[in-house]
């Protein structure tokens, strides 16, 4: 089954949908204006509308394997999903009623008025319902620009209709100058003769277009009053004109005013009914596919968009066919009576009606596919904005497609300014939508570009690839450079080299698939890749090249493969001999973390030894003292622990075994040494090299304490491999700066979006290797971000696929955090004089470090009042002793405070939904000094701000009582940068569009320094100092003390 899961795909679908949905109403209007009965037209339309749904379901709905979570269309037809089926069918019913109603409404009040009113109702009711059905978590970067465009389009549509009406009035009022009184009188008499009697039967049994008046059969000049009169004569809906007694017929211009202006209230009533119908069909479809009301039995998968669309279109077809057959024999609104036989004989205009059904069917299907990816409210809003532009009379696109000018003559009276205005607005909206995601990095994993399943064999006798040395780590190294030499007799610039591990990357390691289909040649992605011409510019001519790649110990052997055909159509040309580390299972990449107590340190590492092969332990002790051995626990996980692709498919790689040991009863500030060991079953030992660390200070201890904070660093390759679209270019610079300043750092906090593996498990080893010099010497505390946790249906607050199927398993296992429940990654840390609160929206915990108290929240789980995490945050903030730990710090991945990121600005906000609205009173009440956030890939500092108001002006020095929390976005650790909005908010004090990190230095209980350093040069580019005494902490600030009166 083909699913669209990215914003670019959603926008492309909506652009295609708007072309189709913006065309079919004009086709039906054209047929009505040329006299074809709406009943005939709608019967044809309904048939191909259903046909489009069947085509989509049997093609896109059947592509790929059917899984229990996402079954294919035919598989799902037999499942017990009747509640969702009823929702889908109810959506089809109301859409059919709405479409049927608009056919008659167009004739009464015009296309532009109908679309403006129905779209207004849809936005007010339908889009609002969808927004709240999705718990307000929509792709709002699409929703809000679409809503803004909608408002502009409403005004434009109204102006267009007003302009057209005024133009018609002017033409008809001036018709007396074109016709003499004699001519008019003669035409009145001719009209009186040719108009049918009120009591004459209005049957139509012979098929064909409705026979209109024979008045003035000579074709009039387009744009003239005569043309308008002829246009009204041809229409199938004659309003109540036939009920006017012949002697009372007015002159032609007056009669046309009567036709145009009569029955307005009836027409508006039909329009409002249609608007209500249109506002309900999309929420019904939303409920059918997402089951927000939990009507399905446990274990029954949600309706996929294709199955829901099939049921939706089926009910739309049944209602449309039934009502229009009834209207053949019982016509309404003065239409002539017809029959099914007459309908079958009516071939004039049938091809256009059938085309309209196909256009509407495919348009609705694409809109629903886009809505599934971007949120139905976003899809509705964008479609409505475009439809208002395209469906207003004279839309540039429709003029080109159908030459509407030929039958809507009043368009010729439009001024040049109006046309230019419409064209500019259309271009503006297209540019807004297509660039709406430009500022927010997509986080694409470079390995995801490789279509490894499509690999075919193209081995060539004269092609080769050789790697040297073939045995690595002979000196105990965990990383080493390998030189590749390769040759291809038919080279191209698309040739590339992939490094695979394990080396035997054949189909034998593929998981079982459909027994009726042959397994793919390759089913696991390489751990890294690089183009063959990367360091050999003449490769495409000579076919010979060389390349140096860095390999790290990852528990298995390696082989290098040369491919042609590019990344999208790989052809395996040559494979190298195996390369291996001397001891591939050795313990590697230790990661220190603060324990649950201030005098406890944990050490976590990775190895290839399971508990049945060896006993893991840490040998450690104070520097210069005797060493003792402490056992370690062992964890691992399987492919089935992953939640989806690619982590469960091409991205899967065995993670080995993760061991953790707890070093307790540490002396404050004392240096300790340790090394990792495994005792094998045969009694021999395997050792790592020796490492050292300094124990944490006693909580409240008055000493120099230095903390580094950043987010969104990701991993990068020293050999330049795996780079895509300049993604994560600052990661290595940040890493190098921290290593360079290691002696002046006590603890590191990485607040989410850790390595951007996005489901490619091998990349976690790459990241732990990259940070080993830091994490082996300092506590490396993590928070969890969207690229570690988010996956639909797994309890994450945001139902997107950013984790690539990891759904938090890797971050919970590869790093230790002092959380009560590691699936809920919120926690606090006390460090010396600091108290840090880190909210992982769900990796939440607190930790003390000297004078600091950190509260770490988890933004991938709900933080709003009444939730478990909200309770944790309040307990964390309220529990700190500010006399001992004066510096209270809150941390979270997504921005719950303030940010000027352009992708927030596009949504009309500066934060995550219900972010600071939920937490700002807690920050103010408990006097949080600084709140740090990642997610936005840049640096920004606010003034001390509360409720969007600067309580104190931004400065580089603050003294005296607490005013409000300073918010700092520090998401420029290494992932591609995000842009700022063009309009700067008053609370935004300092902005830097570059990579960097923050360093906090507590000199004592009264002085705290924040420094922002760029990763590129290591220099300080922003700083501020807080200077205050304990009595200043006790003082009241805005909303920080209980409200009191003279009586109390």
UniProtKB/TrEMBL annotation:
Residue intervals of the Purple acid phosphatase Fn3-like domain: 465-583
Domain Purple acid phosphatase C-terminal stretches: 964-1023
Entry keywords, A to Z: Glycoprotein, Hydrolase, Membrane, Secreted, Signal, Transmembrane, Transmembrane helix
Polar residues: compositionally biased ranges: 165-184
Gene Ontology molecular function: acid phosphatase activity; metal ion binding
InterPro entries: Calcineurin-like_PHP, Fn3_PAP, Metallo-depent_PP-like, MPP_PAP, PAPs_C, PAPs_N, Purple_acid_Pase-like_N, Ureide_permease
Domain Calcineurin-like phosphoesterase: 707-939
Subcellular location: Secreted
Membrane-traversing stretches: 12-31, 43-61, 81-98, 105-130, 142-161, 256-283, 303-329, 350-370, 382-408, 420-439
Hydrolase as UniProt keyword: yes
EC number: 3.1.3.2
Region described as Disordered: 165-211
Name of one Pfam family that matches: Metallophos
Domain Purple acid phosphatase N-terminal: 591-694
Catalytic activity: a phosphate monoester + H2O = an alcohol + phosphate
A GO term from the CC aspect: membrane
Biased amino acid composition, Basic and acidic residues: 185-205
Recorded superkingdom: Eukaryota
Subunit composition and interactions: Homodimer.
PANTHER family named among the record's database cross-references: INACTIVE PURPLE ACID PHOSPHATASE 1-RELATED, PURPLE ACID PHOSPHATASE-RELATED
Similarity field: Belongs to the metallophosphoesterase superfamily. Purple acid phosphatase family.
Protein name: Purple acid phosphatase
The organism of origin for this protein: Musa troglodytarum
Higher taxonomy: Eukaryota, Viridiplantae, Streptophyta, Embryophyta, Tracheophyta
């Amino acid at each position: 089954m083909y699913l669209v899961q990215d914003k670019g795909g959603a926008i492309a679908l909506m652009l295609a949908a708007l072309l189709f949905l913006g065309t079919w109403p004009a086709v039906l209007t054209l047929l009505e204006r040329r006299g074809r009965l709406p009943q005939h037209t709608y019967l044809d339309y309904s048939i191909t509308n259903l046909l489009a749904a069947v085509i989509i379901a049997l093609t896109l709905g059947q592509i790929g394997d059917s899984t229990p979570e996402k079954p294919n269309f035919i598989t799902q037809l037999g499942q017990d999903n009747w509640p969702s089926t009823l929702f889908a069918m109810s959506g089809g019913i109301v859409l059919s009623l709405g479409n049927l109603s608009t056919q008659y409404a167009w004739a009464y009040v015009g296309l532009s008025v109908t679309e403006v009113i129905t779209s207004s109702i849809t936005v007010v009711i339908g889009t609002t319902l969808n927004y709240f059905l999705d718990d307000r978590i929509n792709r709002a970067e699409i929703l809000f620009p679409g809503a803004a465009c909608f408002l502009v389009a409403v005004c434009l549509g109204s102006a267009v209709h007003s302009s057209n009406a005024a133009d018609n009035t002017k033409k008809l009022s001036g018709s007396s100058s074109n016709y003499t009184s004699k001519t008019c009188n003669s035409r009145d008499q001719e009209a009186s003769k040719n108009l049918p009697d009120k009591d004459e039967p209005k049957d139509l049994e012979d098929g064909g277009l409705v026979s209109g008046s024979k008045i003035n059969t000579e074709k009039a000049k387009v744009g003239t009053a005569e043309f308008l009169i002829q246009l009204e004569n041809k229409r199938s809906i004659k309003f109540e004109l036939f009920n006017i007694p012949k002697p009372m017929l007015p002159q032609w211009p007056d009669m046309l005013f009567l036709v145009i202006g009569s029955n307005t209230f009836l027409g508006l009533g039909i329009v409002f009914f249609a608007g209500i119908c249109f506002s309900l069909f999309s929420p019904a479809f939303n409920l059918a596919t997402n089951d927000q009301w939990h009507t399905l039995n446990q274990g029954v998968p949600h309706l996929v968009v294709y199955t829901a669309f099939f049921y939706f279109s089926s009910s739309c077809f049944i209602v449309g066919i039934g009502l229009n057959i009834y209207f053949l024999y019982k016509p309404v609104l003065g239409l002539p009576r017809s029959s099914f036989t007459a309908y079958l004989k009516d071939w004039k205009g049938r091809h256009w009606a059938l085309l309209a059904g196909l256009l509407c069917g495919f348009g609705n299907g694409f809109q629903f596919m886009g809505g599934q990816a971007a949120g139905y409210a976003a899809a509705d809003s964008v479609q409505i904005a475009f439809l208002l532009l395209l469906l207003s009379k004279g839309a540039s696109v429709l003029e080109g497609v159908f030459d509407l000018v030929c039958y809507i003559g009043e368009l010729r009276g439009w001024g040049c300014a109006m046309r230019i205005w419409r064209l500019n607005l259309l271009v503006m909206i297209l540019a807004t939508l297509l660039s709406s995601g430009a500022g927010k990095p997509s986080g694409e994993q470079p390995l995801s570009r490789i279509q490894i399943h499509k690999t075919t064999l193209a081995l060539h006798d004269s092609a080769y690839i050789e790697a040297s040395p073939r045995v690595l780590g002979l000196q105990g190294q965990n990383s080493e450079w390998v030189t590749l030499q390769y040759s291809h007799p038919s080279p191209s610039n698309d040739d590339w080299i992939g490094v695979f591990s394990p080396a035997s990357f054949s189909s034998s390691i593929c998981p079982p698939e459909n027994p009726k289909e042959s397994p793919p040649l390759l089913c696991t992605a390489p751990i890294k890749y690089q183009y063959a011409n990367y360091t050999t510019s003449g490769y495409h001519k000579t076919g010979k090249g060389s390349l140096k790649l860095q390999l790290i110990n990852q528990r298995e052997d390696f082989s290098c493969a040369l491919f042609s055909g590019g990344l999208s159509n790989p052809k395996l040309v040559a494979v190298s001999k195996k390369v291996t580390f001397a001891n591939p299972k050795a313990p590697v990449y230790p990661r220190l973390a603060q324990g649950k107590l201030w005098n406890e340190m944990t050490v976590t590492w990775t190895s290839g030894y399971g508990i049945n092969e060896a006993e893991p332990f840490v040998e450690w002790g104070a520097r210069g003292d005797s060493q003792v051995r402490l056992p370690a626990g062992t964890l691992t996980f399987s492919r089935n622990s992953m939640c989806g692709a690619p982590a469960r498919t091409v991205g899967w790689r065995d993670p080995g075994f993760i061991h953790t040991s707890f070093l307790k009863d540490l002396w404050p500030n004392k240096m300790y040494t340790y090394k990792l060991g495994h005792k094998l079953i045969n009694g021999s030992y395997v050792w790592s090299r020796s490492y050292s660390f300094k124990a944490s200070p006693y909580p409240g201890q008055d000493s120099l304490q230095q903390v580094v904070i950043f987010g969104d660093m990701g991993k990068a390759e020293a050999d330049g491999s795996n780079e895509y679209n300049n993604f994560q270019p600052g990661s290595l610079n940040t890493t190098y700066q921290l290593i360079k300043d290691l002696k002046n750092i006590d603890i590191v906090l990485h607040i989410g979006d850790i390595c951007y593996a996005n489901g490619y498990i091998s990349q976690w080893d790459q990241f732990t290797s990259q940070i080993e010099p830091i994490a082996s010497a300092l506590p490396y505390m993590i928070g969890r971000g969207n690229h570690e946790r988010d996956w639909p249906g797994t309890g994450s607050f945001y139902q997107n696929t950013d984790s690539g199927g990891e759904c938090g398993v890797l971050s919970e296992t590869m790093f230790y955090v002092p959380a009560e429940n590691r699936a809920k990654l919120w926690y606090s840390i006390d460090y010396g004089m600091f108290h840090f609160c880190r909210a992982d929206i769900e990796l939440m915990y607190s930790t003390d470090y000297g004078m600091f108290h950190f509260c770490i929240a988890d933004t991938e789980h709900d933080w709003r009042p009444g939730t478990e995490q909200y309770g944790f945050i309040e307990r964390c903030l309220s529990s700190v002793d500010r006399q001992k730990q004066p510096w209270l710090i809150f941390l979270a991945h997504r921005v719950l405070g303030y940010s000027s990121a352009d992708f927030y600005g596009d949504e009309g906000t500066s934060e995550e939904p219900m972010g600071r609205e939920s937490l700002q009173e807690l920050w103010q009440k408990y006097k949080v000094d600084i709140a740090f956030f990642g997610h936005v890939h840049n640096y920004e500092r606010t003034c001390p701000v509360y409720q969007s108001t600067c309580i104190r002006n931004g400065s580089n020095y603050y003294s005296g009582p607490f005013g409000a929390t300073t918010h700092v976005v520090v998401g420029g650790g290494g992932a591609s940068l995000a842009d700022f909005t063009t309009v700067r908010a008053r609370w935004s004090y300092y902005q830097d569009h570059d990579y960097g990190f923050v360093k906090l230095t507590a000199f004592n209980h009264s002085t705290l320094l924040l420094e922002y350093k760029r990763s590129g040069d290591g220099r300080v580019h922003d700083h501020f100092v807080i200077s205050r005494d304990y009595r200043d902490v006790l003082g009241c600030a805005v909303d920080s003390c209980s409200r009191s009166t003279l009586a109390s």
